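Give me structure tokens for this 443-residue protein.
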Amino acid sequence: MKYNSIKLFSILISIAILICLYSCGSGKVSNQQENNSVTQDSVPKEKSVHHFDKTLVNKTISRINSYSSDTTQSYEIYLPSDYDTVKSFPLILFFDAHARGKLPLKKYQSLAEKYHFVFIGSNNSRNGFPITESQNIANSILKDALIRLNINPKLVFASGFSGGSKVACNFGFNCSSVRGVIGCAAPFTEQLSAVMIAPDIFLLSGNEDFNMAGMVQADMALKEAGFNHQLFVFDGKHDWPDEKYFEYGMQWIQQNAVTKNVMSNKYLKVSTPDFNSWKETHVADADMLAREMNDEQEFGKQFTVADISYWKEKISYLQKSKTSKQNFALKKLCARELNYISMMGFVYSESALNQNNLPAAKHFLEIYESADATNPDVWYLKAIYFSKSGDINSAFVSLKKSAQLGFADINKLKNENSFLSIQNENGFQESIFLPVLKNANKE
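Here you go.
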């Protein structure tokens, strides 16, 4: 029997996608291996892999809800303006620490256009999930994307922020379809000696990020393990990097794909930055980094036992040091340590409130506020504390201040049972709910 060209093209595309689908979670295989084993149940039987979804609108962030039997699952998708179902496109799958699937898509939308990538952001993977659950979410989204969209199965990448960076790295270490990872603001946790799949790894860290020292250590571990890797440190805190820095990561992963002859350099007509230029100014020497790691361990030991006077003295010293005229690296070290205390303040305060341990929550919140008084999460958690303590007026004032400072998690606000009484207060909609909704839409 003779096949016409259209049928032959469909068969070839189907085979390529099937290979990609079966490579995720099916055992540890090198990322360089092109032929992977397959199983019968990796593709939903009710859907043909070469009938791509033609209803999605280009240049618009759309929500996909119907990719899983679990109706609570969804993801956001951005298609570049030239997307169509005839040719295949590279993909970056994003994981945010707070399940903000739309945030990185909006932040890096112009990069999707510039380099002609499809972007997808998970609305479910978040900090606190078991890594196996996040891995299942990632596998499900990728499987659906490869069926729904014309994605080049050889050009699948992952990226994440904070806990989402750990998810992206874990996904890359366990799914041979993932060619490269851009990990932002947190190092991976895997023991590299036990990792058999070796994607390209590009790490991004702010020089005031409390995870920076860990990122430097992770970069050294990647070097020792023989990975193709790169670390870039920029001026910034613990957050998704600015667009120009994330573009460095996109350039790097594409250059590697071009080198391996799986991607054209058609859209890489830009000057390549010196990825190692940061080393002279952004990172302290080994002794200073060792001091930072030791200080953070000591902070962890003291956080539940030291009184508030200890913390106020420590925080005051760090706040003065980070703005003094001492050397740049030491100033940034002090800023990172201050941010580390802030991070612990959030974690311990939230945990104490969840356990209704109000005396402990009060103590931790006092440390948190001392370290990071302009952080909207401080005032959001203080509002929960006051509400649980029966001080409705203080809860309302704290929640209003949180909204003014930029609190943007509208779902968290809606679902917090402690605020049921506050919602009946005059001005709640105008001074709290609507500003938080506005902040969320900005993200």
